[in-house]
Design brief:
Number of helices: 6
Largest sheet: none
Helix content: over 70%
Length: 154
């Protein structure tokens, strides 16, 4: 039975994680290596850690995926909390604005400050599908949270 609660941040977090992981795998696939974004992010995070040469690709990929998971779970929940007060078409516009803003920040602001992110969003043409995947995840969150139709959850 559907719940009367509003859209759940945990549901949004999981949906944003799945949607952005799919987008990053698609970017990698188009580049010839599906896990490329995770491996490159992991290599940046590893920095100067001494590892055997044979362990670097697997370790970097796992670390990059773990980093992506943590970041998207946190940001997915925060983005939903920012959009949740809006209803109807205002919710749609809030979700789109938040997703585009988040993606552009990942393109221009986050990489220079933290040193991670260049491997993920390298151009506006990669930021757009990432923003759309985030927006779609946030738009389906009320439905996936079990909020019944006809309620004022969205």
């Amino acid at each position: 039975m559907a719940s009367n609660s509003r859209a759940r941040p945990g549901t949004a977090a999981l949906l944003v994680f799945v949607a952005t992981t799919g987008a990053l795998l698609a970017f990698g696939w188009s580049d010839g290596e599906p896990t490329k974004a995770f491996r490159q992010a992991g290599r940046m995070l590893l920095g100067v850690v001494e590892l055997p040469e044979s362990a670097i690709p697997a370790t970097a990929t796992a670390l990059g995926l773990l980093h992506h998971m943590v970041i998207t779970l946190v940001w997915g929940a925060l983005l939903l909390l920012a959009a949740r007060p809006f209803r109807g078409h205002r919710y749609l516009w809030a979700v789109l604005a938040l997703a585009v803003t988040f993606s552009l920040l990942n393109l221009w602001l986050v990489p220079p400050i933290f040193g991670v992110g260049y491997a993920v969003v390298t151009s506006v043409w990669r930021a757009v599908p990432l923003a759309l995947s985030i927006a779609l995840a946030l738009l389906v969150t009320p439905w996936a949270s079990g909020v019944p139709e006809g309620t004022s959850a969205v």
